[in-house]
Amino acid sequence: MLYEKPYPTKPNRTDVAVLTPWLAPIIWEGSFNIDILNEYFHRKGVHIGITVFAIKKYVMFVKTFIETAEQFFMVGHNVTYYVFTDRPNDIPLVPLKEGRHLEILEVPGYKRWQDITMRRMQVIRDNCRQRFLNEVDYLVCVDVDMTFNDHVGVEILSDVFGALHPGFFGASRPAFTYERRPQSQAGIPVDEGDYYYAGGFFGGTIEEVYKLTNFCHNAMMTDKEHNLEALWHDESYLNKYFLYHKPTKVLSPEYIWNIYYGNPAVLKKRRFNSIQKDYSQVRSRRSVQENVNHKTTV
User: How remote is the C-alpha of 226 from its chain's centroid?
Assistant: First the structure.
């Protein structure tokens, strides 16, 4: 393999941080050589699983999600799509490339979308033990109402990784919408926190994803016993976990972008984008307002 010689005195990017204070890489366009990484992971013969939850009307997003993933997600590697749904008969069969498979797994459909998004931690945790451990090497957990628009590959893989929320990657700690109530298991004091991570993109090895989802589920259940529900549901617990269990790789907002946040100069790629949708058609009126309240400027 031929490629340009790397120099330790010549940084790949100077406009963004490419390393966290605990020495985990922050993945931006221009910070990695995908040819070297593909060769490394091909030699390991990795199999990657990707989970999505298509509950109720969200089944409408599955076709586009898988079609775009076939173009851009882990191209050339073995992939299994795990689609959790309460409507298995409505999941379309999309043509897949060699070495790629679709598994449709039935789960209950909860009345509130908040319960759906929080219960996914339990479902992922349980399946880590029951099947993922025997079927895949890495697990990528994302939202289904997204489209792949550019390369998302093995550069993201690590023991445990999270993605910077596109609305907060340039914000100060007080601006982070962490759960602030100290009585909540998700509570984070205003003077703590590294980054604000998006709930819609995380993953790692099966062992590490099990630890993450087990923590989040148990914390949610403890709060529920005390009639508490964290401000941003599973995302709040995810941020608490990553504060005290540092991710070994951090993905830049390239990996979970929303056009609502404009076109900052540091963003060279928009790899995985939210679908613009009418929330009144897929969620309750209350959740529409909650979604608006969660948006902020970069």
Answer: 28
Give CA–CA dist 127/99, Å, rounded.
Answer: 21
Q: Report how far residue 176's alpha carbon sits from residue 199's, in angstroms, rounded to the nearest whole number.
A: 14
In our burial notation (b when 16+ CB lie closer than 10 A, e otherwise), range 192-228 reads: ebbbbbbbbbbbbbbebbbbbbbbbbebbeebeeeeb
Q: Is 235 a catalytic residue?
A: yes
d(CA 152, CA 149) in angstroms, rounded, equals 9
pTM above 0.85, yes or no: yes
Q: In what order do the strands lie in the sheet with 47-54?
A: 26-27, 249-251, 160-164, 197-205, 138-142, 47-54, 78-85, 100-106
pLDDT in tens, 122-131: 999 999 999 9
Which of the 8 DSSP states describes residue 1?
-
Of 70, 179, 208, 235, which residue is the catalytic one?
235
**What confidence score (pLDDT) does residue 288 get?**
45
